[in-house]
Amino acid sequence: MTRFAVPRLRRLMPLALCAATACAEALPQEGLIITDRNLAIRTEVTATVFPGIDPDPMAPPRAEALPFETVRITPYLVGPEGPITPDAVEPVWIACELSPGAGLFSCMDAAIPLKLADIPECEAPDFADLMGEELPAFVSPCIIARETAPEFVVPLAAGIFLGADIELTMISGPREGTSTEDCAEPLLDGEYELPNDCLYSVQRLSLGPLDQLLVQLAAFGALPDGIEAPDPEDVRDGDRNPRITGIEVLVIHPDGSTEDPVEVSSGDTVMAAWGDTLRVTTFSPEEDLQLYDISVNNGESTQEEQEAYQGDWFRTWGQLLSGSSDDPESYNEWTLQPGSQDEQDTPPNDEAWLYYVVRDGRQGVNWWNLHVQVDSSEAP
Amino acid sequence: MALALGFAAWMPARAMAAPPAEGEAPAEAPPAPEDFVPAALQNSVELDYPAELAAREEPPSGTVEVTYVVGVDGVPKELEVSQSVDPELDALALEAVGKLRYAPATYQGNPVEVVLSIQIPFAPPPPPPPPELDGGDGDGDGDGDGDAVGDGDAVGDGDGDGNGDGDAVQDPEEFESGDTQTEGALRLTGTVLTAGDRTPVPEARVIAIPAGDLPAGQIKRRIYEDPEAPAWTASAFTDEEGEFELRGVPDGKARLVVLAPGFERFEYVVPVVQGQITNVRWYLRPLEANPFKTTVDVEREEMVEVTTRSISVEELTTLPGTQGDALKAIANFPGVARPPFAGGLLVIRGSAPGDSAVYLGYHEIPTLFHFGGITSVFNSDILAQIDFIPGNFDSRYGDAIGGVVNVVPRKGRRDGYHGYIDSDIFDTGVLVEGKVGKGSFALSGRRSYIDFILPLVIPSDAGLNFTLAPRYWDYQGLFDYPVGDGNLSVRAFGSDDRTILAFAGPNDDVVDDRNSVESTQWFHRADLVYTARKGAWDFLVTPSYRRTYIGVAAVGAFGLDIRALDISVRAEAAKRVSDRLRVRVGTEFRSTSSEVLVDAPQFSGDGQAVVEVEGTSYSPAIYTTATMAATDKLNFYPGVRLTAYAGLLDAVTVDPRLRFSYDATSATRLTGGVGMYSQSPEPFELSDGFGNPQLGPERAVHTSLGVSHEFPYDLNLEVTGFYKYLWDQVDVSQRVVLRDGALTPEFFSNTGEGRIYGAELLFRKALTRNLFGWVSYTLSRSERRVTPEDPWALFTFDQTHILTLIASYKLPYNWQIGARFRLVSGNPVTPCTDGIFNASTGGYDCRLGPTNGDRLPAFHQLDLRVDKTWIYRLWQFTLYLDVQNAYNNTSNVEFQNYSFNFQEQQPITSLPIIPSLGLKASF
User: Fold this and answer.
1) Would you call B798 helix, strand, or coil by DSSP?
2) What gap in Å lies between CA B663 and CA B708, rounded to an integer?
3) Is B561 left (phi over 0), alpha (psi -120 to 50) or beta?
4) Distance CA B92, CA B79 (A)
5) B121: pLDDT strictly greater than 90
6) Nearest by CB to B609, which of A106, A295, A308?
7) What is the C-alpha to C-alpha distance for residues B355 and B698, in angstroms, rounded to an integer?
8) pLDDT of amino acid B146
9) CATH number of A246-375
């Protein structure tokens, strides 16, 4: 089973309620990008101290990390004029140790109120800590960096052996508007009212798999007393980010005629006319859907589950056939006509963007974007 | 005839005398000692000569002598009939003497017992004079709709040749004007039944007089003629079966007049043929349509609750805005919060919905409503009465810290075979009932048809597809039979709700479990109930067997499969130890064997967990309550309940409870109580994987004080104040604890506390003939805090003001109208002040404001109901229109809907005006 229940049910409930009470469509659509927004945060291991942990160089990067590994944290920031370049904003990233079973943002919530200036910088772990009598405590919360896509060395802390993870919080002002400092202050003060244009995001950096850590520590001869390492053959691979292996665009004209489908890459530009429909197909390998174990009866045994894709589609203008998809080969149709909440009958500056994010049911995520240049000369 | 027993019946006292020895003539009573003061009668009792005896051919008459002892408390005892007349008259005499009260006799200032005897003469009443021939007071028609009521069947010899084998006919000239004739040959027999449901009309007066020139058949018009004494009369009363016999009616035509209280006057001209016995069957139209006029007695519990509000089935089936649903009718009483969307939550005196218990025939029911609130899972027409106890309930009820709703099934009718078909906007139901030997049965079933209607109204482009549209059905079976000294009831109940909704997107190539929501819920239950009274003892034994299934699968991320077998046994014995003491002792044993499979996100955190368990939990309990009359006006009801929990929860709770009632006057009563109550946490809260197996029971103390006063015209005013304190409440915990040698999230802990206080007012007009209704107002405050260190915050279901006005009136020609107006404070809400993007799920998490820091706007709504009944000879038909939100108030906000990032909100309002039409055909 997947963890997409919350967004699925959240989208279904208003439909059911509105069907019962005939409420009007007045709330902004989630799939329409009209302000700066964060659509995803990807964690990927970029450097490891454990040789042989990633035997397949073609495998996608791991989203799940072990202590001492370096993780790049990348947000997917977008706006109505296209993806936001890293230097356009100045976010601050905060790491916090997340207790087993705790929900995202609960670590920061427990620490609030606090001042941004009082939060220490995160320290990289030291191998010497493995030789000590006790494992060090992770100073939490701590500031990772003040840049858009920082790198973070996963600390070593006793909590990891109990199932702890790291909570990553990003606080950023938009490109134009409230500053990051002014966004951080009310949140960290515990105030209820926050500036609407601020970008507040949280992501879970999964630590593990625990069995993999034990195997690696055993290889180093640094296994803590009283803990046994499992057979490496029984250890599952860590959670990895899914790949996007292809994007195909087919232009359908209003009279039903089509162009030849073309393969595109993320960020490419497609030419189309007002009123055309772009049938966009995206491909993610089925083999990237990993098997993983969930606890049965509080650890008495485990049950195998398989990841499943969940794709979310966004646009800056126009109409989408659907806001989501969930197949390895998913498609959507983007009609270049004004949607119900578009302010203009033609796209601003005759251009529009399509954003796509795919998740695998755990922390793996990937995305692409498509730029379309619209010929609005025939627009009514 | 009313007979007053007063001081005239006093006989000389024979203090401490023994009865004369056998064969010895009774001696004259010796003179009383000088220091002896005889017993003095304090009251009188009226006796009516029984109508059924008066209807006999030779009603018994004579003097019944009763010998009895007047005790030192002035109450007669050791009653004996020393001279008998007739068993029924003897019993009547004993009952009447038992009601006499004396100032006790005294000797030298000390109360002493004395033996007295009393002679009670009985004589049947003389027959009334014949009615005046002034045309009567009606023509038998109600609304001119050409109904068939009154078409008599004048059955004679079949071929109408007038020949028969009857006795000799008395010469009509022998009758003198004004005479009534009760002797002579049998000439006419008949049966008088109620039009519509064909039940007998007992004690109807049937009078025969000469018909003159009137044609044979029913007389429907008003006859204006000079009154003169008829040449002859004959009369009779109908018996319990509605049957009568008339004798001495001369040949020719007889005009028969039938008079019965509550029915329209009926007249018919019948040919009386020489040598034949004419048989007739007539249907009298009742003055008002009342399918409940056949009273089914329910043994009323003698234990008094501090506050018990009862509603009769006739009231609840015509309450506006409730579609005749028993549990929804409860929401109109004070102390009950209004549920959102008229749904199925029962919030009693500020308690959580799961804190109250609903009992159906001595055992709890697991599910109250179909699909969370459409309608109750049982047909309200199988009920005798509903008792609503908002707090301080008796020790009989346990595992609840809120209130109790006690739903009492009735017995099937024994006055013939009856039934109905009833259709409304949601479902169609049927019911049949009747007698079986000395007992009775009632069978009922309902099925919804939303599954047929919904697919027709949902737009095809909505992306919703009901693989199985929501549908429900339920059934009830009741069988009652007298066994030994008591009564045995066999009952069966069941309910089934199912739906499968698929919502595939237009670009979904593969439709799997992630595109569907499926829900199945059913239960089947069978009860045996045996009650008996033996001397001063009352006994109750009732085992119950129930199977339950709940299955939910939602979007491939949540799965629930629960199968349970519940066995419950309750046994009670109660004894009237003395006139001032009654004790009831009981035991209740419940066991639940369940197989549970849950695959769901954890309640806190982002993990997924699977729990797969089998097991059995037990909860035996013993309880006792005493009724102690400290004085004639003051009663105490101390009680205690001891419950043991084993299996899932290991705990023992002891709940002492004390109530009192004081009759300040004959019309004013004070009641009050204080008591402790306990409740087990929910199974999922105790589960290993989703909850905390080390949780303990939740506790509460209830206190209340009330006064009620009976006014004339069946008006009653009741004011009650209450205070409840809750502790050890189960609340969410973020702690990590050491359990079984391992650190694990705690999930839940018993740290919560609550306090609820307020006052309730109920001013009520009980249903008598035409009008019933009430004004209900509640002022209360319900608060909670997660730990004792946290500040108090409003409870989610706190409704400060709850005002309900209800009135229902029966108009002529079987119309009935009703209205209900409600004005209720809005529920507290915890606002979402902003959203934080959760990159793990791709959605936004609500940033909560102050807990229940906002409140929705006040709710107000008017509901109307109109009923019209047509009564035919063999059946009746009712059409009703129930309009909810009659003035289409669109400002009632049920909750706020937020934008995807929680930065904007849109109110979701209550249901608009909804007219609901219902049809009911009954026989």
Assistant:
1) coil
2) 10
3) beta
4) 12
5) no
6) A295
7) 10
8) 32
9) 2.60.40
Q: Is A194 helix (H, G, I), strand (E, B) or coil?
A: coil
Which residue of chain B comes nearest to A206, CA vs CA? B840
How far is it, in rounded angstroms, from Cα B637 to Cα B404? 18
A184 touches B: beta carbon within 8 Å: no
Share the mean pLDDT of chain B: 83
Q: Which of residues 63-92 of A touch B (CB under 8 A)?
A: 75
Give me the interface pTM, i.e. the ipTM: 0.95
Q: Flag whether pLDDT at B463 surpasses 70.
A: no
Beta carbons of A100 and B743 less than 8 Å apart: yes
Task: Give the closest-approach CA distance of B611 to chain A in angstroms.
Answer: 5
Least Cα distance to A144 among A110, A161, A178, A167 occurs for A167
Q: Which candidate from B610, B849, B900 shows the least CB-CB separation from A295?
A: B610
- Is residue B47 scored above 90 in pLDDT? no
CB A310 within 8 A of CB B842: yes
Assign a CATH topology to domain B310-922. Maltoporin; Chain A (2.40.170)
Residue B735, both tokens: 């702690």
Name the nearest CA neighbour of A169 among A97, A100, A117, A92: A92
Q: CB distance A21–B557 less than 8 Å?
A: no
pLDDT band, very low/low/confident/very high, at B296 (cuts 50, 70, 90): very low
Q: Give the total residue count for chain A.
A: 380
Residue A30: closest CA among chain B residues belongs to which residue? B900
Residues of chain B with pLDDT > 70, as a percent, come to: 85
Q: Does residue A99 sit at the B interface (CB-CB below 8 Å)?
A: yes
Given an 8 Å threshold on Cβ–Cβ distance, is B900 in contact with A28?
yes
Tell me the two tokens of residue A168: 């990553």
Out of B610, B835, B842, the one facing A312 most closely (by C-beta) is B842
From A23, A100, A202, residue closest to B839, measured CB to CB: A202
Interface contact flag, A202 B507, Cβ < 8 Å: no
CATH superfamily of B2-122: TonB (3.30.2420.10)
Lowest mean pLDDT among A216-230, A244-258, B361-375, B778-792: A216-230
- At B777 the pLDDT is 97
Confidence of residue B300 (pLDDT cuts 50, 70, 90): very low
Question: Which member of B736, B744, B843 has the closest CB to residue A6?
Answer: B843
User: CB B833 to CB A204 under 8 A?
Assistant: no
pLDDT-derived band at A201 (thresholds 50, 70, 90) equals very high
A46-52 long-range Cβ contacts below 8 angstroms, 24+ apart: A46/A70, A46/A71, A46/A72, A46/A151, A50/A216, A50/A219
The CATH number for B172-284, chosen from 3.40.190.290, 2.60.40.10, 2.102.10.10, 3.90.230.10, is 2.60.40.10
Q: What is the pLDDT of residues A296-347, one digit of tens each?
A: 877 778 888 899 999 999 999 999 999 999 999 999 999 999 999 999 999 9
C-beta atoms of B837 and A201 within 8 A: yes
CB contact under 8 A, B837 and A363: no
CA distance B736 to B116: 80
pLDDT digits (tens, 9 = 90+) for B870-902: 999 899 999 999 999 999 999 999 989 999 999
How many CA atoms, within 13 angstroms, populate the side-chain half-sphere of residue B340? 18
Domain boundaries, chain B: 2-122, 172-284, 310-922
Angle at B777 between CA B774 and CA B781, to 5 degrees: 155
Given a cut of 60, whether residue A273 has pLDDT beyond it is yes
- Cβ–Cβ pairs < 8 A, chains A and B: 213
**What are the tens digits of pLDDT across the range B475-534?**
999 999 999 889 999 999 999 999 888 777 788 877 777 788 889 999 999 999 999 998
Residues of chain A contacting residue B510, judged by C-beta atoms under 8 Å apart: 326-327
